[in-house]
Amino acid sequence: METLTNVYDSVRDHPIVNALLPHLLTVAGFLLALLAIARLISERKQPSNTFAWLLTIAFIPYLGVPLYLLLGGRKIKRLAARKAPLTPVVPGMKPSAAASTATAKVLTLNGVSPPLGGNRVQFLTSGEESFAKLEQGIREAKQSIHIMTFILGRDAVGKRLIKLLAQRAKEGVKVRLLLDSLGCFTSSGGFCDPLRKAGGEVVKFMPVLPIQTRGSSNLRNHRKIAVFDHRVAALGGRNLAVEYMGPTFLKRRWRDFGAIVEGPAASLLNEIFIADWAFASGQPISQLNLERPKEPPAAAGDSEVQIAASGPDVPGEPLYEGLLSLVQQAEKSIWISTPYFIPDEVLFRSLLVQARAGIDVRLVIPARSNHPITDLARRYYLRELHRAGAKVLLYGPGMSHAKMMLVDERLGLMGSANMDLRSLFVNFEVGMVTYSPKEATAMSLWMREVFEQSKPMPTPSKVRRIFPTIGEEIARLLAPLL
Q: How many C-beta atoms surround the C-beta of residue 365 within 10 A?
């Protein structure tokens, strides 16, 4: 042992080794950076996204290269090939009259199913109401319960839901719970064992450890969907944790927005769930589809809605282009609620133009979100919108997590996607566009109530406009990576 130690010491202290090793490490770092930059450019990302990664790789290659190889992937062809294509249709159902609108055409050309009529939509405006409807759906389901979420809390809400799902599984109901492996990193293991032991199935979406493919750590399933007996579905921004919902009122609970959909559109949300489940579980989608009713759900109301999924498994950018279409066609008003606001250049400029043209542009964001770095990154965009004539409203006290937009108090968009680069261009997301007056009225009333509980953003000082903080500039520069 002593001889080996002496040899190691002599090699380590050799002048040639001391001179050569740093050079070799520098060359290796340079070659890795070139490889990463070549791959980055070939992926044709958003210019701002590409620039942010280039800066990170060029100035801190030993950190930037590994991070890019781990997190930089997005539209991965092999992943898309393995996953069932999301072009859902409802056999026997004809598109509704809303199919002729500009937004509907944009979404349909991106592979989204046309708008469907015959639906009943009920918006869920409180965490208590949302939890009650979720429990009701679980208790009343006779055949199947399909739930996917980004976060399952290890708290009273998570425990109660796992217990109830286990009970229904014991009673013979087919229970499937799909959890994002990052968002549910601490709750997807032993915490869910009571459900597994009762006969329910729990699957993790794209496990973080071990890493499956390049970029898989970055591709998160941010969709929140629950489907009961293939005919009633829920979607929105709420995760399954005490901050988002619960049986009783909680002062610190976040404000959020969701919906229950009954009718033909529910089968589209179920198809999205089945495609995600088949991919994550490895179960044949053809076998899973045998469980689905041969006939679409019967009409339950008169609402026209369009279900749009977005993410690495979708060829285009349905939610992003649909959102752009809504903004650019607005004639009177654009009302937006989002917890994080880091838009891309096209969306940002579209909002600026509409505000300068006299359109009533209102943006509601939390006065202080749960991610301080995104609050820094948003400052530039908020200042510019304010200068253009938009009304920037800060919600508080408390956190607003709602993701929705209402245009001309006529067309609405709600779902799981934040108005930031990660939701619009990286995550697996799902949204619903509403075309009926009834839903527009309900969304308008909700937004007006939020306006009353928000305060106008103070006018930025001249010094701040000219000399923004260094932290703010760095955060904005790195915004595409957030």
A: 25
pLDDT band at 214 (very low <50, low <70, confident <90, very high): very low
H-only helix segments in 240-399: 264-281, 285-289, 318-329, 345-356, 372-388
Give yes or no for a contact between 225 and 147, defined as CB atoms under 8 angstroms apart.
Answer: yes
Cβ(342)–Cβ(303) under 8 Å? no
Backbone angles phi, psi at 296, to 5 degrees: -65, 160
CA–CA gap between residue 360 and residue 326 (Å, rounded): 14
Check if the beta carbon of residue 97 is closer than 8 Å to that of residue 242. no
CA dihedral 263, 266, 271, 274 (to 10 degrees): -130
Collapsed DSSP state (helix, strand, coil) of residue 60: coil
Q: Rounded distance, CA 131 to CA 124, Å?
A: 9
Q: Bridge-partner residues for 394, per DSSP?
A: 365, 455
pLDDT of residue 8: 44
Q: How far apart are the first and last CA of the chain?
A: 49
Give the closest residue to 68 by CA, choosing from 23, 22, 36, 28: 36
What pLDDT does 20 receive?
62
Question: Which range among 160-169, 313-322, 440-449 shows the weakest confidence by mean pLDDT?
Answer: 313-322
More confident residue, 15 or 461: 461
Determine the Cα–Cα distance for residues 22 and 246; give it in Å rounded to an integer. 57
Residue 207 pLDDT: 81
With contact defined as beta carbons under 8 Å apart, do 114 and 106 qualify?
A: no
Q: Which residue has the tokens 């939390």?
A: 366
Distance (Å, whole) CA 176 – CA 172:
12
> Residue 26, exposed/middle/buried by CB under 10 A (0-12, 13-18, 19+)?
exposed
Please report where in the chains the tokens 């980004």 appear, as a residue. Answer: 150
Q: Determine phi and psi for 432, rounding to 5 degrees.
A: -135, 125
In 3D space, the residue among 445, 373, 363, 355 whose CA is nearest the CA of residue 400 turns out to be 363
- pTM here? 0.84
Average pLDDT of the residues in 226-233? 97
Q: How confident is the model at residue 447 (pLDDT cuts 50, 70, 90)?
A: very high
